[in-house]
Amino acid sequence: MSDAEMPQEPPAEPGIPEGEPPEDRASSEMYRRVTGIGTSAGRAMVVPALAVLTALIIGAFIIAVTDVDTLSVWGDDPAEAFRLTVSGIFDAYRALLVGSVGSLDAISETLFAAAPMILAGLAVAVGFQAGLFNIGVNGQMHIGGMAALWVGFTFAIPAVFHVPLVIAAAIAGGALWAALAGFLKARTGAHEVITTIMLNFIALFLVDYLLKSSLFQAPGRNDPISQPANPTSVFVTLFSDYRLNIGFIVALLAVAFVWWLMYRTTIGFEFRAVGYSPSGGRYAGMSVAWVYVSVMAVSGALAGIAGANQVVGLEPYRGISNFAGNVGFDAIALALLGRSHPVGVLFAGLLFGGLRAGGREMQGAAGIPIDLVLVLQALIIVMIAAPELVRAIYRVKTPDQEITTVTSTGWGA
What burial class does residue 262 get, using C-beta atoms within 10 Å of its C-beta: 0-12 exposed, 13-18 middle, 19+ buried? Predict the structure, then answer.
C-alpha cells in the first residue's frame, strides 16, 4: 500500500496538544477556557465596540426624529432639512465629546464620575467570572458606605491613617453583606439573584432607619441626613479647582488587584473554574461552597469601596437616603460591556463616565435632553445582550473556539 493510500491521522484540535488521549480532551478544553489560552483580547472587544457604535447610530436617528422644528421643514425644503438634521446630530455629539474630554475640567468630571462605576463594575465582573450574578451591588454599596461614614465621623486621627481606615471599614461592610448571599447559596442553594435583590431592599430601608437614629443623624435634623464626616477622612482632591479625588486612584488599584487575583493566583483560578463548571471544579477537589462565599465577599468588598466613594468622596461628605443612586445597577452594564475583564470594565467605566459628564454639556449647548444619555446606555446594554445580532449586522465571523464569559448559573445550580 502506497503512502497516499495509507489512512491519515485526523488533525489535532486547536488548543489541544497533539497526541493527547481523547478522554483528556474535555479537561483540556476546560483548562483552556478557564486560563484563557488561545484567546485574543482585541477579538473579544470587537462586539462591545460595535455595540457602542450601533448605539450611537441609533441615538443619532432618535435625535433626528425628535427634532420637531427640523421635521416640519422636510415637506418644504428637503435639502435644507437634511442639512439641519446632520448639523443637529453633529452638534449634539460634539457637545457630548467636548463635555467629556474637551478640557481639563471635562476630563476631571469624566474620571470623577467613572471612579464609583469602575469599582461597582468590578464587583459584578468578579461574580460573573465565578458564575454568580451579583445584582445586589447597590445594597452592598449602601452598607459599605455607612460603615465608612461611621468611621469617618467617629474618629479624629491624621488623614494618612483615617482614609485607609475608612476604606477598610467599607470593605468589611460590603464583604459581610454580600457574603450573606454567598452563604445562603452554599448552604441552601438559594439563588443569588433572589437573595441579593432582597438584600438590596433590606439595605436601603436599614440605611434610612440608621440615618434617622441618634447614631448617625445630624443634630437638629429630623430627616434622614447624617452628620458630616471629619475632614481627615474624606477623599482628597488630586488637583485644586477640580473634583477629581483619590477615589479614581483607588479604582485603578482595584483594577490591578482584580486582574492579579483572577489571573495570577490559585484562588482566582478556582473562581473561574467553578464559574465554568461547578461540577468540574468539585471533581477537581475544589470547595464550591467556599468559592461561592469567597467570591461574593470579594465582590461585596469592591462594592463597599464604591459606596464609600459616594459618601467621603462626594460633597457634602455625609450620608443621605439612597446615596448610591443607580451606580449599582449601571455596574451590570459595565461588566457586560467589559466582558467581565478588569481592563474591559475600566474602559467601560470611562465610557459611561464620559457619557454622564458629557450629557450635561450636550443638554446645555445643543439643547438635547440629558435623558438621551440614558437612552444611549440602554441601547448599549441591548446590543451587548444580543451579540449575535451585532455579528449579523456587521458580518463578524464567530471564532471557532470563542471564550464565552459565564454570567450566571442556572436556577437549579
Answer: buried
